């Protein structure tokens, strides 16, 4: 291989990398999905057992349901009453209560 062929290959690869990076940047800008940052905060307040006793498949979907108003913090039967009250205070809703499921 000559030096000229190596340089051409390097320029082609750099150009391809730049073009693909531009496509990814544009796609990120137009396809961005906003997610409420409170979901992460509420999820950290939950026990993280992903048991499904609340009727949701895990703690993150339960946190999303809490923010949408479909669930009450007391429906998480794994967390203590104090934790449910803290989540309710954070969200500004009533804690409610749920039946303990085994």
- Give the helix level as a range of percent: 55-70%
Task: Count all strands and give the number.
Answer: 0
Order of helices and strands: HHHH
Strand content: under 5%
Sequence stretches where pLDDT stays below 50 over 5 or more residues: none
| End-to-end C-alpha gap | 70 Å
Cα radius of gyration in angstroms? 24 Å
Summarize this structure as a short list of keywords or feature phrases.
102 residues, mainly alpha, 4 helices
Brief description of this entry?
This protein has 102 residues and is an all-alpha fold. Helices cover 57% and strands 0% of the residues.
Please tell me about this protein's structure.
By secondary structure, the chain is mainly alpha-helical. 57% of the residues lie in helices and 0% in strands. It has 4 helices and no strands. It has helices at residues 3-31, 38-45, 59-68, 81-91. The protein is rod-shaped, with a radius of gyration of 24 Å. The model has no long low-confidence stretch (mean pLDDT 90).
Walk me through the topology.
Elements: H1 3-31, H2 38-45, H3 59-68, H4 81-91
């Amino acid at each position: 291989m000559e030096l000229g062929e190596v340089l051409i290959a390097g320029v082609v690869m750099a150009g391809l990398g730049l073009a693909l990076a531009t496509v990814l940047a544009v796609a990120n800008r137009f396809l961005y999905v906003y997610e409420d940052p409170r979901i992460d905060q509420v999820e950290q307040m939950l026990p993280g057992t992903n048991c499904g006793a609340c009727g949701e498949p895990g703690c993150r979907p339960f946190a999303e349901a809490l923010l949408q108003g479909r669930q009450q913090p007391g429906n998480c039967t794994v967390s203590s009453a104090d934790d449910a009250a803290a989540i309710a205070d954070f969200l500004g809703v009533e804690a409610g209560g749920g039946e303990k499921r085994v």
